[in-house]
Amino acid sequence: MRKSIFSWMISALILILSPNFALAQTAFPDHGRVLEVEVPAPALKGNLVGTLSVQNIAIYLPPSYDLSKDSRYPVIYLLHGIFDDYGVWVENFDVPKILDRLIASYEIPELIVVMPNGGNRYGGGFYRNSPVTGNWADYIADDLVAYVDKEFRTVANTAARAIMGHSMGGYGALNLAIKRSDVFSVVWAFSPCCLVPEEDLSFGNDAWRRAAAIENTEDLQKLLEARDFYPIALLGIVTAFSPDLHAAPIYGDFPFDIVRGEIALDGEVLDRYLDQFPVRQIRGSRESLRGLRGLGMSVGLDDQFLHIPSGTLEFSQELGKERVPHRLDVYDGDHRELVEERLERTAFPWVAERLALTE
Q1: DSSP symbols for 229-276
Q2: Terminal CA-to-CA distance of the chain, rounded, Å?
Q3: What is the DSSP string of 182-206?
Q4: In what order do the strands lie in the sheet with 327-331?
Q5: Which tens digit of pLDDT belongs to each residue from 100-153?
Q6: Which candidate among 14, 28, 50, 69 keeps its CA 20 to 30 Å from the CA of 179?
Q7: What ranges make up the beta strands (E) of 266-341?
């Protein structure tokens, strides 16, 4: 005899109220988890600023990762800013909770997010290769990607791999877009620093004089202990953008001399220095940039670092001149304000939509 609708409803209610059903429901978590692991970083060996060749990372694994043993996931690499570490993503910008919400609402697919450290004694190596601060670009694109693809169930190809970052990390994401489009196919930069040497990065900033005045290790140590932001950050820039193995104790080639207390630019060194900035690299990299699955940038117009809004807009204009498709997200906000909101509403959904989900 066929059961009545009422009988089916009673059966379903009994099932829902049974202990076994409750256990089955709780077996499927509604949130991912974050691991902290050490990663070999052979690309950083031999650096002159004391950065270790084993690095810590945090990695977000999506809710189904531990249950669906055959599933593989696309990967986003998330680069932090100067004087930060990966804790800024976990503790300040609440990235794991943002990802949980987006996945639960089906706005993004389940994916893995890798958050490396990129700091050094000068605040960071700018995710660039340098004989002084280490080959950070190679560490991210080669050492770290190889480790993650080996140790975790990733979709291990370029089409399923994105690079994102904030401030110094935003610069790093664009630098890797230009230099390593063979590894990363989708890019998003939040408030990217150092795209152009203008405003507070120009030589009109007196911090350049304070940085260039260092003559010995004692001077350097005093500056570091004073935590004077701009000259320390500029030491990071000059050692990453204009390294010089023979210029102890900084090991950076300043593109100027101090003559009677004033900055006198050195034309040859200056040209080499300026060539390292992304605005000058777009034309030579336009084919690889056009081949990306997505390129996006966000910037707050009230950013405290004045070169960032102007540099981001100029970078976008140069991309337009070279007919490189990209998205520019401009909003009213400062360097950190609204980053969390823009991650959730704009960047993560846009990036995830462009990632391949299978090999």
Answers
A1: HHHHHHHHHHHHHSB-TTSTTTTB--SEEEETTEEEE-HHHHHHHHTT
A2: 50
A3: TT--EEEEES---SS--GGGSTTST
A4: 33-40, 54-61, 112-116, 75-79, 161-166, 186-190, 294-300, 327-331
A5: 999 999 999 999 999 999 999 999 999 999 999 999 999 999 999 999 999 999
A6: 50
A7: 294-300, 327-331
